[in-house]
Amino acid sequence: MPSASLTSPTPPPTKLFSAIVIVAALGYFVDIYDLILFSIVRVRSLNELGITAKDAVTNQGIFLINMQMGGMLLGGILWGILGDKRGRLSVLFGSILLYSLANIANGFVQTLDQYAWLRLIAGVGLAGELGAGITLVAETLPKEKRGYGTMIVATVGVSGAMLAYWVGEGSGWGWRNAYFIGGGLGLALLVLRVSVYESGMFQQTKESGVARGNFLSLFTNGPRLARYLKCLLIGVPLWFVVGILITLAPEFGAELGITGPVSAGLGVFWCYFGLVFGDFASGTISQLMRSRNRALQLFLVLCSALVAVYLYGMRGASPSTFYAVCFVLGLTVGFWALFVTVAAEQFGTNLRATVATTAPNFARGSVVLLTFLFQLFKAPLGLIGSATVLAVVSLLMAFWAVSSLPESYGKELDYVEE
């Protein structure tokens, strides 16, 4: 059960475009660039490593995605605990350093095993930035502006996918240089550390001596565990869309009889271009409605409609129509930062970073389970049937989770979990 903090936190800054918001947004920009880059260079990088058979490219690509997402599962726990024990800033910049170095090393790989291990290490690094950034923004902006702050972080951040597409596919610089550039951008971002300060709420919770970052405590209290699991479920549909429908866009394009070749890179580009507008819209709508839950419910309904269009409404369509649907589909799942904001607002200061970091990474890591189930169901049900089953289950569970969580808009955050 939450209880009031013994001391009042330092009054938060009133400026929406504070250094914390700007650094968190740029950090998420580089995070998304590195996170999505593999989906863009998957085919060409595997071909260059000697994997050319169509089925092998699909299967080994899924294996590498699972390694990256598995790393994010591990990193989510690691960085989340450190965020509540050591501080939000340590995680924000430590995670950027790790994934930057891993991505530079990724540009030198010569074997599939090297590729896999470096995707795992990069995944661990990629797990920390968003949760730490959102937690800092939530704890340092006034409650009336939190939604706008996290909206800025998400809107700037997801546009990193468009840069990843241009560098990875449109520039002609090659997939190895694309990894080098991602790592270099992350290292360059570290110089901004001097302009960011630690959360006042965290500092005073630290001084109070309250136990912090106890990940296992999420599982020792029934209502707390229920809140946590519901937070996880909200993010799964987005990663079903990105990890299955968009990453495997060439395979779905062939199955649907799209009249021309479908590029995974362009699918990612248009989906994330939609995500930019979706994150802006979902954050704004949640503020105007004064409700996180109603905004999330609206976007889940829209996502359900667009998934149906993607799977059943495009047979024989042109590539341009296919990419247009990818764009709108991306817009409907543009509630990522809103989801992380809800997770942060549901828990006290001594567990907030743990939840805000593990929740999105467990949701991202659900791709491991989703791809396993997708392949399991694909044999009896086919590509479209397998995707349909996963879409129905993930969307229904997310809608139930949102509908049963307490509303968190305007909630005071200066309390701890007992």
UniProtKB/TrEMBL annotation:
Classification via CDD domains: MFS_SV2_like (cd17316)
Location relative to the cell: Membrane
Transmembrane stretches, start-end: 16-41, 61-82, 89-109, 115-136, 148-166, 178-196, 231-250, 262-283, 295-314, 320-343, 383-402
InterPro entries xrefs: MFS, MFS_dom, MFS_trans_sf
Name of a matching Pfam family: MFS_1
UniProt domain Major facilitator superfamily (MFS) profile: residue ranges: 20-409
Alphabetical keyword list: Membrane, Transmembrane, Transmembrane helix
Record-linked Gene3D superfamilies: MFS general substrate transporter like domains
SUPFAM superfamilies given in the database record: MFS general substrate transporter
Protein name, UniProt field: MFS transporter
